[in-house]
Design brief:
The complex is a heterodimer of chains A (about 100) and B (about 290). Chain A is mainly α and about 100 residues long. Chain A is built from four helices and no strands. Chain B is an all-alpha fold and about 290 residues long. Chain B has two domains: about 1-60; about 90-275, no CATH class. Chain B has helices at about 5-25, 30-55, 60-85, 90-115, 125-155, 165-185, 190-210, 220-240, 245-265, 270-275. Classes of the chains: A mainly alpha (about 100), B mainly alpha (about 290).
Amino acid sequence: MNALLLADLTVFTLSLLVGFEVISKVPATLHTPLMSGANAVHGVVIVGVMLLAASVTTVAGYVLVLIAAAFAAMNVTGGYVVTDRMLAMFRTRKEGRR
Amino acid sequence: MSGFDTTVHLIYLACAVCFVLGLHLMNAPASARRGNRLSAAGMTAAIVTTAAVLVHDRVIAGWAVAALVAGGVLGAVAGLITARRVEMTAMPQLVSLFNAVGGGAAALIALGDALAHSADLAGQPVRTSVTTVLDLAIGGVTLSGSLVASGKLAGMVPGRPIGVPGGRWINAVLGLAAVVLAGLFLTGHAGMAALYGIGFAALAAGVLLTLPIGGADMPVVISLLNACTGTAVAMAGFVLGSDALIIAGALVGAAGAILTKLMADAMNRPISAIIAGGYGTGDDAA
């Protein structure tokens, strides 16, 4: 086990613990928007696709990057936009009730 | 470490802080929208910074840039249009679709990285090889599983629980096959072929695991698959040596797991019963 793996494992474990702590008492109405928000955050995979693109040199690699980039970009843009729309509705609905 | 590298690391750190604070703000209705925007700002910074790194390093092939830009534009436009036009009632299945493509991208990173190092697969360190297998397996299951979940909510796949005869045995065989292939791959006895096998087994398992679950339980399943995608992205972070991916992926993995439990509790349904399936008629249950 080398130093790089140990450093990565440390970051991974502490991030898991932060993830467990960051969600506290969420009202049930926010469950779906929060799920959608978390879904948008793992759109960070687009950064991974960009890093991968730097190491491919074959046609198969380019095709893979093309598909992966389309997938990841759809995840990240769609994820944030749909979450924002959900939360916007949430607020107008609440204001309408007042 | 050069000044450029230091700056890049600090920006990635700031992005991670944005993701954590963003999710935290989404716990309360009043601050939720601000939280999502903070998270989006962090994401934009991460993407711009990575682009700057690619330009700075000048190692990327021209065709790779073309593939990246073409795919990125295509995906972004598709995501924007569907997210803007979707009906309010159809949002859960769209989230599931976005989750599916996210898991798919993570699985493709595992394949792509292995392809890029295919000349020396056996010489890869444990840090890369083990996580490549995990990334591919988890990403494959979430890709097909989320597509089935999305199809069930959209009515393209019947919402009722669909029992596959001997489904559990098939899953057991698929799991065993994946473990054997992973063992062969990790000990250097098999190359890319083993990875393709693991990928197909994961895709099949995702379908077989989701089909027997009723439409009424789908939101909880989507949340669970969401947590799985987060974990797959974290594994992709190990493969590529990217802290940003490890942090954000682990964050979503853990937060998604807690959220899954909260949603299951709110429905008074134990998670184990939901995964076992066979409950809920789907379309008329709500």
